[in-house]
Specification:
This protein is α/β, with parallel strands linked by helices. The chain contains 17 helices and 17 strands.
């Protein structure tokens, strides 16, 4: 009897979502294993459908089983832990098997049905085919007749130090034609390898010593035994805004790597990801991989493959990064854990907290939730001892906490104020607006001074400050979110670029300031349009991917 497998088939409705039994051809038996991506005939017409093997040597339903069409390479096989997560999602979220599979692996790592060169045979084809590049290695001796060219000698010299990719060799002035010629002569051997990619390579590696305050050190010392223990633990780092929770993260991650284990860091939104990347890349360099939806399919696939191949010790990203194929996880951090974005709104409707808790349990890791405003669930669990509670009550550097004034709106109503805004708040807004206008005016004067004594870093800082003053004055949440995302995207590019200041930006900023001062809508819109156009042209000059 041929070997049989139980396959979860794509596009199956919930009521028909089960494991379908297929026979395996002899030439495929060594390639098929648990977690393999396969192509199967399905239905009366035996139409080709994608599937994943979730059971091996399953009991046949009848003697005449259909055979698998094709099997993906072993590199596409789901790891045992990811397979367990598939079953976890299926049970906890009531999704289909294949919906769970698509959740745990990125689009680029998935396969699709295709047709072989004969135009008939169904085969598997990768969703992305341009994620590999040519790599060359030295396998023979360069013949002396005919006399080798200078480019051939240079290629052999470079490759004598080890294999190199086509892009690396082309950067040294060696063309593909030269390399192909050497391959024909048996001097070089060409193979396909995954493209190497170092996202955010412009961020310099500082590796600065991590210095903690007394309170931060106490929090670190409290969490350290849980990190060093091989049993799963959970903790809530409840720290006020500006208390320096990130420094505690960095210290814990550093210790986690010293223990030979890996770390997973989750942030709630893409807009917050660059800030965390900047800190992690600056501290740990190329050991950091990134996973979030703002990456294109190729970038995300290459980062995923780097993680899968063991090339990353730290993964940072949004909700979906919780499925990263990291092994031997020692620390999982969920920053701003109260945010609703950690819950998926499409199938499978999972919570990143639940998945992280499951992975922490499997790996014997520390699950660290962090927030200045923790969720009710997390804080209740901490108060009842199910999760360890660690507090940071002081701001970093001794900065004071903001003052809070409570206003009784019933008293306001009784005093003849029927509006939603209290008189106290109205007065504060009026004075705040005046202060903001004065700050804008001083900012513009400083920008004008910099046109005479130019410093790129100082100008960028002033530019950022001016726009944030506009955001505060407008009290527009959509504008604030847009500006935050934009600056996070371009900041690492602009800082390292050196060019002359453009007086046109000062003109547009002045128009915006005068429009706010005079409450002139048309003038304000004109100034904003001109400022956006100037920024767009600047970003095009430095090839920022907007």
């Amino acid at each position: 009897m041929p070997k049989t497998v139980g396959v979860a088939v794509s596009n199956a409705t919930f009521h028909f979502d089960k494991l379908y039994t297929y026979a395996v051809l002899p030439e495929h038996q060594n390639a098929v294993r648990l977690g393999s991506m396969v192509l199967v005939p399905f239905g009366k017409g035996s139409r080709a459908r994608m599937g994943v093997v979730l059971a091996c040597d399953a009991e046949p339903e009848h003697s005449k089983l259909k055979y698998l069409f094709d099997v993906a390479p072993a590199s596409a096989c789901l790891t045992p832990e990811l397979l367990r997560l598939v079953h976890f999602l299926k049970e906890r979220t009531f999704c289909t098997y294949y919906e769970a599979v698509k959740a745990v692996i990125p689009y680029g790592a998935q396969y699709k049905p295709a047709v072989a060169a004969d135009g008939v045979t169904p085969v598997l084809q990768k969703q992305l085919t341009r994620h590999t590049e040519n790599a060359y290695k030295l396998v023979g001796t360069l013949p002396q007749k005919p006399k080798p060219t200078a480019k051939q000698l240079a290629a052999v010299a470079l490759l004598s130090g080890g294999p190199r990719t086509l892009n690396e060799l082309e950067d040294k002035g060696i063309s593909r034609a030269v390399l192909d010629n050497l391959c024909t002569k048996g001097v070089l051997e060409c193979s396909k390898v995954n493209k190497s990619i170092d996202l955010y390579a412009s961020i310099p590696l500082r590796n600065d010593p991590i210095t903690l305050t007394e309170q931060q050190q106490t929090a670190y010392d409290t969490l350290l035994p849980k990190l060093e223990d091989t049993a799963p633990h959970s903790a809530l780092l409840y720290g006020v805004t500006g208390s320096g929770k990130t420094l505690v993260f960095l210290k814990l991650i550093s210790r986690c790597l010293e223990l030979g284990r890996k770390a997973l860091v989750l942030v709630p939104e893409i807009s917050l990801t660059p800030q965390m990347i900047l800190r992690l890349k600056g501290q740990f360099g190329r050991r950091v991989a990134v996973q979030h939806s703002a990456l294109n399919h190729t970038e995300r696939l290459l980062q995923w493959q780097m993680i899968q191949d063991g090339g990353a010790d730290i993964v940072v990203g949004t909700r979906s990064a919780v499925f990263s194929p990291l092994e031997n996880i020692g620390l999982i951090i969920i920053d701003e854990e109260q945010e609703h974005t950690y819950r998926s709104e499409s199938a499978p409707r999972y919570s990143a907290h639940e998945v992280a808790r499951q992975r922490a349990a499997e790996n014997g890791a520390l699950l660290l939730l962090a927030s200045a405003t923790p969720s009710t669930e997390s804080f209740y669990a901490a108060q009842n001892g199910r999760t360890q509670l660690v507090r940071l009550t002081k701001r970093y550097g001794g900065n004071p906490l903001p003052s809070v004034q409570i206003v009784d709106m019933r008293a306001e109503l009784a005093a003849g104020n029927p509006r939603e805004i209290s008189l106290v708040l109205e007065d504060a807004i009026r004075h705040r607006t005046e202060a903001q206008l004065r700050a804008m005016e001083e900012n513009l004067k400083a920008q004008e001074v910099l046109t005479q004594h130019y410093s790129r870093q100082e100008y960028v800082t002033l530019n950022h400050t001016f726009h944030w003053l506009v955001v505060e004055a407008s009290a527009n949440k959509y504008y604030e979110k847009y500006l935050n995302e934009l600056y996070n995207k371009i900041n690492t590019y602009v800082i390292f670029y050196d060019q002359s200041s453009d007086n046109n930006s000062i003109v547009s900023h002045t128009m915006i300031y005068e429009a706010l001062r005079d409450r002139d809508l048309e003038k304000g819109l004109l100034g904003l349009r001109e400022d956006i156009q100037i920024a767009w042209e600047d970003m095009r000059k430095i090839n920022v991917p907007l």
